[in-house]
Amino acid sequence: MPDARIALIRHGQTEWSASGQHTSVTDIDLTPEGQDQAKVIPRLLAGLRIHPTSVLVSPRLRARRTAELAGLTVTGTLDDLAEWDYGDYEGLTSKEIHEDRPGWSVFTDGAPGGESPEDVTARADRALATAAESLGGGDVVLVCHGHISRVLAVRWVGLPITAGAAIAMSPAAVTVLGYDRGNAIIDHANVVPFAGTGRG
């Protein structure tokens, strides 16, 4: 197994991530705080000893801006890194959704008019396969979103998508995937160098 690792980076804060609104296809930019968060990412990657030779980003503006402000050299855009399509729940908070559907979780129930857990599992597995192909050349960075990052992390270690509910991914956080003695591991999870960010 290669010594290189995969670093998942969630985009910096947006108005909707700050308010807890589900954001997929709505293409909004970072807040000033989100921009500041993105600028700290290089120090965080250095501390984790991540030296990217390949950087793949979601097609969404918030991910591309995060990569740009972090000074990352983007080598490609990957549609499979887009956030979970929330369909009818786009723009709603979990509290609002739970008023009509108590106990709802995107990881088990998916989103009406959007993607199912099976849809997102397939996308995550494809994205990880693409990233793994580049590990022979060095560390790979994937700049994407909260829920898809959580799915990527648990699928890397062979867990079902429902396990994504057990891992956090704050704005501009880094989660590192790698190997230990030939086994896929989550090396670091939800690492942030600053306080005051929400979870998505």
Automatic annotation (TrEMBL):
Gene3D superfamilies hit by this protein:
Phosphoglycerate mutase-like
A Gene Ontology biological process in which this protein takes part is: regulation of phosphorelay signal transduction system
Q: Per its UniProt record, what InterPro entries does this chain match?
A: His_Pase_superF_clade-1, His_PPase_superfam, PGM_Phosphatase
Q: Name one molecular function that GO assigns to this entry.
A: protein histidine phosphatase activity
Q: Which residues form the active site?
A: 11, 83
> Known Pfam families for this protein?
His_Phos_1
Domain of life of the organism in this record?
Answer: Bacteria
Please list the residues that bind substrate: 62, 83-86
Q: What is this protein called?
A: Phosphoglycerate mutase
